[in-house]
Design a protein that fits this description.
The chain is mainly alpha-helical and 69 residues long. The protein has one domain: Winged helix-like DNA-binding domain superfamily/Winged helix DNA-binding domain (Arc Repressor Mutant, subunit A). It is built from 3 helices and 2 strands, in the order ββααα. It has a two-stranded antiparallel ribbon. The protein is globular and about 35 Å long.
């Protein structure tokens, strides 16, 4: 499975969802945010992930969660 933001392939990190073009798991961003870290701190730690990817991921999640009933 590939989207603009994430990639899921058994050949990359055993199928763990990662930011497209990287080996950085999406779960890592979630862990950072849950731990009170900022997006900037995440990006500093994982420079292969672009800010645009993080924002797009969050926008897609928001759209999925806030779909009108």
């Amino acid at each position: 499975m590939n989207t603009h933001v994430i990639s899921i392939s058994p050949d990359v990190m055993g199928g763990t969802p990662v930011f497209n073009g990287t080996r950085v798991p999406v779960q890592t961003l979630i862990d950072y945010l849950e731990g009170g870290e900022s997006i900037d701190e995440f990006l500093d730690g994982f420079p292969t992930v672009r800010r645009e990817q993080v924002i797009e991921l969050l926008e897609e999640a928001k759209e999925m969660i806030l779909v009108p009933a």
